[in-house]
Structures are given as structure tokens and as C-alpha cells.
Amino acid sequence: MLKYMSGEDVGELQPWPFTGEASNYKVTHGTPVASGRIDDSGPTWRIGIWRCTVGTFDCNEPGDELQTILSGRVRIVRADGSVHEFGPGDSVFTYLGERVTWDVLEDVTKVFFGRNPNGF
After folding, report:
1. Cα–Cα–Cα angle for 50, 53, 59, nearest 5°?
2. Confidence (pLDDT) at 62
3. What is the CATH architecture of 18-115?
């Protein structure tokens, strides 16, 4: 069993830079710093923890992903212009290839389950 709780220490995370060939992200404001950890995975799925400091970036979602905010606040702007704000306990589902803008309002930590039928 994997357990993720708001307010609990999530343990050690590794740097997940916003740059590089494999990056699905483009920073548009500030200097957000991301880190994370994959806790379990298979050929087409993964589950883990992700954390990011304040800033804004565009994202081309690398898979279908269910995300639950453990701490902090984030505003997500979809390609159609709709704006949604999420905080602790809130969940959001994004689709493979969906283009969204993440505006991290407070340092945010989330747990995620991602799936990509083509693999990650």
C-alpha cells in the first residue's frame, strides 16, 4: 500500500528540471523549481509525488493523469481559456496531450497517477 496524506512529510524528492530534450514544460513566468519521485510504475503507468515552487509554466501533458493536491495552491488554465483553482484535497484529471498552463500560486505538492498507452 502507498499512503499519501496532506500535512505529512513526503520524504526525499529528486530534481525534475523544466529543461532538456524530454521536457514537456516551458516556463513563462518566474523561476519555478520542480522535484519528484516515482513510487511505482509499469510499462504504461506510474504513480508518485511532485512538488513545485511558485511560478508559471505551459505543459503538454505526457499522459492521462489524476492528480490530488496535498499542499499549496495552483491555478490551471486550459486551452479553451477556462480557469480552475485547486488546493489541498482537490483533484484534477488531465488528458494525454492536453495543453494547460500551471500557475503555481503557493509551493505545491501533489500525488499523481499517470497512464500513457504508448509508455512514458
Report:
1. 65
2. 87
3. Sandwich (2.60)
